[in-house]
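Thread: "does anyone have the structure for this chain?"

Original post by V.I.:
We have the sequence but no experimental structure in hand. Need at least a predicted one for the grant figures.
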Amino acid sequence: MQNTGMKEKGAGALGRRSLHEEITSEIREMILEGALRPGAKVPEKELAEQLEVSRTPLREALKALSVEGLVTLVANRGATISVVTREQFEELLPVMAVLEQLGGESLCSVLATSDRRTEILDDLEALHAEIITGFEERDDVRYRKANKDFHERLIRHGGNTCLLEIYGHVLARMHMGRFLLQKTEESWRQAAQDHEKIMQAIRECDGPRTGILLRRHAEGTVRNVVLRALEQQT
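Reply from O.Q.:
Generated one for you, tokens below.
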């Protein structure tokens, strides 16, 4: 895990709140990228040393992440990375699907009028290429990171900050379930095919089609993969 050099004494004008936000963001990324995996105990002493902060702001960050549902706090036992249950997943999935549909439609509206069209498309094309490379090389870590970045960036480029904030919380909870299972050949191929269709619809600025494809991807491919992962927990 990379040392961020996030020293409390060096926070200066950033203030307590900014330091808290930085630590929270750093731990959130560790969870989403799999450095801290579902069900694992949070190594507070090790994390504090790596982030170069004391245990107090670290624990404040863990409390914030518990509100997001990423961390579970148990009195006198510390914190563990939350495990998504099937019931929670079934509640999250339709929300995520609708948010992605809205995000795809918003993105295409922006692409149709923005002078940043080329810049936005280049960004998404690069992430899409990473996704396909991850699939072709069966590199799950590479695929997973590019996939998360692609969907998050898609929403971000749509320009709706409220949607981005809500989506970020839902994505974090959903994404955790994907660490529990190595993809089957069928799921690899289906996910790659879905992304090819989604990217083509984005290139054509077809908002309704992009939105529908994103929703189908969430309700179909993603649902099958995560449900299989959750079944393996039991």
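V.I.: this helps a lot. The two ends are 30 Å apart (CA to CA).
O.Q.: and The chain has a mean pLDDT of 85.
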